[in-house]
């Protein structure tokens, strides 16, 4: 089968022929319908997150497809079932897995990091327990839901205890994750004002289409001053930063109001200097991915049509061009690798 692999850090992915795995026991071989291209994979490709076990290695942690073959101990699935793949795998359950917080298990065992990922025609899943039925959802449409939607869903949920009717939620960075963040802020906090901030006018237009009440261009206006103006000087009660640079984290912290919560998701590697903001009892936390239960909730919202992924389909020969576009902010929504050409038209919903 074909697979897009990291063969050297800092180099483009190579399309290589690798053996098709054979499932045993609880393992399931999934025919990949879609595999989302994530910004964190750029960090892995450049060796900035040196977690890959050895090279060459197949990336891809946002995966969905169809059950192709099953080991002898698999229960509840049949060949041809459409499934999403939860990627927080572990060799043996730890206290986080037992508590339903699988996203906090050893990152070195996750799909696309510790196990070969979905940038391939087939993916070997170590247990059927990591599969979630898709129902009527297309695997191409569902693939980015496993991270690009799941991560902001968990992050926005963390804001809920700090919010009240009429309060303000700010989403900083409205790329692939932030666009879902705007949608979840609108869905989970319907009585709140939602503000989106970015430096790309096109992405701000999309954010407004997805439900943002106000948008702020970060290079044309002072985001902190504008948020304060839109909140009568109070500031936001909830802020999610999907960038994570020094500039955006400082903005997020400075626009937070009394007893607000600021959630950092982005991996830009910035630094934040604390100030007298501590007098406001504002909370600062981080958020990573989401649990398998939360993924089931995201899939249900998608089935109901409450959230809408924007998808750019990518073939194997286009994957490096797509990553180049991702690195330069030219992807509107989520790029999804579609390894089987005959399945390319199976997706539904908004596309590029």
UniProtKB/TrEMBL annotation:
Enzyme class: oxidoreductase
Known EC number: 1.1.1.1
Cofactor(s) it depends on: Zn(2+)
Domain of life according to the entry: Bacteria
One Pfam family, short name: ADH_zinc_N
Keywords assigned: Metal-binding, Oxidoreductase, Zinc
SMART domains cross-referenced by the UniProt entry: PKS_ER
Molecular functions per Gene Ontology: alcohol dehydrogenase (NAD+) activity; zinc ion binding
Coiled-coil regions listed in the entry: none
Domain Enoyl reductase (ER) per the UniProt entry, residue ranges: 10-337
Reaction equations catalysed: a primary alcohol + NAD(+) = an aldehyde + NADH + H(+); a secondary alcohol + NAD(+) = a ketone + NADH + H(+)
Family (UniProt): Belongs to the zinc-containing alcohol dehydrogenase family.
Name recorded for this polypeptide: Alcohol dehydrogenase
UniProt source species: Hydrogenibacillus schlegelii (Bacillus schlegelii)
